């Protein structure tokens, strides 16, 4: 599929999705959000793809926020609809994918860009990365999950400070906060993400998808995460991957998971 604002490459069961609007520092507009939805949907449905990495083009920005020019004159209803649709087709959509998603933060991740990274299952940052939610400096609040996911990742107090000051933190601080898992030199960022993806590829994609459901359940209102874990654990016993994994362990050989 041809896209105007993103690039998609697939190799060795890893799909790399790149936001490609360098002149706009890869800012998210409506078209880009829709294209990202389609790319993630296609990758998740592709049986050959076991891990997805998302990054930004160039060496300055992952995604430097939303394209403000698109919504500067929106009404209250239009603003609420914008956020609701974004949650549905991209941010919540990514969070709940059964395919693992790694954010390779290669520069500025601000506003919607940081919210995009936080929707991914985990994050790796380059040493020049800067992260923040500057929305209150524009008279608005984060609308793509920032007020919910940031406290989950860094704690309420730190999230409040980041949101209220509209300031940026560097990659080392983000790592200390638990916002990113690793900090690497920019030229090594994608290589490290590929190495992590290769480790994931050794394991059962079915079990990983079940684990994602169980972990996410802990953060959903009215859902008992332990019950979800028990259910997903039980379902694992009915999969071919479980049969292969346990058989390979007992036979002291490497498992060759069929993925079902």
Explain this structure to me?
With 260 residues, the chain is an alpha/beta fold. It is 46% helix and 17% strand. It has ten helices and ten strands. The protein has helices spanning 30-45, 76-95, 112-119, 146-154, 156-165, 171-177, 189-201, 205-217, 225-236, 240-250, and strands at 6-11, 14-19, 51-56, 61-63, 101-105, 108-110, 122-126, 130-132, 168-170, 182-184. The strands form two sheets. It has a six-stranded mixed sheet, sandwiched between helices. It has a four-stranded mixed sheet with strand order 4-6-8-9. Helix 1 (30-45) links the parallel strand 2 and strand 3. Helix 1 packs parallel to helix 2. It is globular, with a radius of gyration of 19 Å. It starts with 5 loop residues before the first strand and ends in a 10-residue tail after the last helix. 38% of the residues are buried.
Quick structural summary:
This protein has 260 residues and is α/β, with parallel strands linked by helices.
Instruction: Report how far the terminal alpha carbons are from each other.
Output: 27 Å
Which range does the strand content fall in? Answer: 15-25%
Point out poorly predicted stretches. none
Strand order of the largest sheet: 1-2-3-5-7-10
- What profile does the largest beta sheet have? 6 strands, mixed
Q: Helix share of residues?
A: 40-55%
The backbone outline, from C-alpha atoms, is globular
Order of helical and strand elements: EEHEEHEEHEEHHEHEHHHH
Query: Radius of gyration, rounded?
Result: 19 Å
Number of helices: 10
How would you state the average pLDDT, rounded?
A: 96
Number of strands: 10
The class by helix and strand makeup works out as alpha/beta
Assembly status: single chain
């Amino acid at each position: 599929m041809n896209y105007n604002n993103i690039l998609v490459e697939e190799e060795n069961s890893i799909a790399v999705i790149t936001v490609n609007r360098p002149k706009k520092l890869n800012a998210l507009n409506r078209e880009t959000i829709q294209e990202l939805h389609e790319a993630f949907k296609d990758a998740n449905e592709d049986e050959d793809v076991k891990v997805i990495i998302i990054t930004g083009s160039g060496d300055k920005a992952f995604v430097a926020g939303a394209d403000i020019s698109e919504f500067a004159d929106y009404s209250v209803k239009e603003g609420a609809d914008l956020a609701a649709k974004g949650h549905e087709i991209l941010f919540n959509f990514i969070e709940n994918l059964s395919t693992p998603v790694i954010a390779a933060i290669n520069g500025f991740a601000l506003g919607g860009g940081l919210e995009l990274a936080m929707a991914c299952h985990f994050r790796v940052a380059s040493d020049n990365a800067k992260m923040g939610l500057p929305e209150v400096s524009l008279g608005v609040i984060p609308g793509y999950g920032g007020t919910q996911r940031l406290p989950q990742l860094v704690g309420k107090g730190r999230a409040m400070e980041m949101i209220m000051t509209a300031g940026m933190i560097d990659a080392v601080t983000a790592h200390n906060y638990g916002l990113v898992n690793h900090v690497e030199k920019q030229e090594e960022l994608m290589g490290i993400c590929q190495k992590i993806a290769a480790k994931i590829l050794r394991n059962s994609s079915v079990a990983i998808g079940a684990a994602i459901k169980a972990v996410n359940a802990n953060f959903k209102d009215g859902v008992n995460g332990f019950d979800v874990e028990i259910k997903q654990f039980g379902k694992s016993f009915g999969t071919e991957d479980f049969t292969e994994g346990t058989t390979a362990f007992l036979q002291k050989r490497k498992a060759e998971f069929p993925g079902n």
